[in-house]
Design brief:
- The protein is an alpha+beta fold.
- The protein has one domain (about 5-115).
- The chain contains two helices and seven strands, in the order αβββββββα.
- It has helices at about 5-10, 90-115; strands at about 15, 20-25, 30-35, 45, 55-60, 65-70, 80-85.
- The strands form two sheets. The chain has a four-stranded antiparallel beta sheet. A three-stranded antiparallel beta sheet has the order 1-2-3, with no helix packed on it.
- Strand 5 (about 55-60) and strand 6 (about 65-70) form a beta hairpin.
- It starts with a helix and ends with a helix.
């Protein structure tokens, strides 16, 4: 059977909204608030509005991979591959650097955007 994350993203169109939020077009009206304290070109970074602890956000390079970034954890537990091939070391270093620089802002966004 296929990967549920890949299947979901391939079937659900995602539109960029002016309120710095990705909206998944489905009957439940789920939202994917965008991480706004930093951007890395070519990557989509978001929170699920109804997600769970520990605080984290998701990062995706379209058609290649998705990872969970647990920004309150230490380096060994910071990244979790959800699907696809692992991101390059360069991408992981960029994300690690952004997390360290913006950890407080990320936690504030988590508390504001996640139920």
């Amino acid at each position: 059977m296929g990967d549920p994350y890949r299947t979901f993203f391939n079937k659900q169109p995602i539109e960029k909204c002016p309120a710095a939020e990705y909206t998944v077009s489905n009957s439940a009206g789920q939202t994917m608030p965008k991480v706004t304290c930093f951007e890395i070109p070519g990557l989509s970074c978001w929170f699920w509005s109804d997600d769970h602890d520990p605080p984290h956000f998701h990062v995706k390079r379209d058609g290649e991979w998705e990872i969970k970034v647990k920004f309150t954890e230490d380096d060994e537990e910071l990244f979790e591959l959800k699907w696809g091939d692992a991101p390059s070391g360069k991408v992981l270093r960029e994300l690690r650097k952004a997390v360290k620089k913006h950890r407080i802002a990320l936690l504030a966004e988590w508390e504001e955007k996640v139920n």
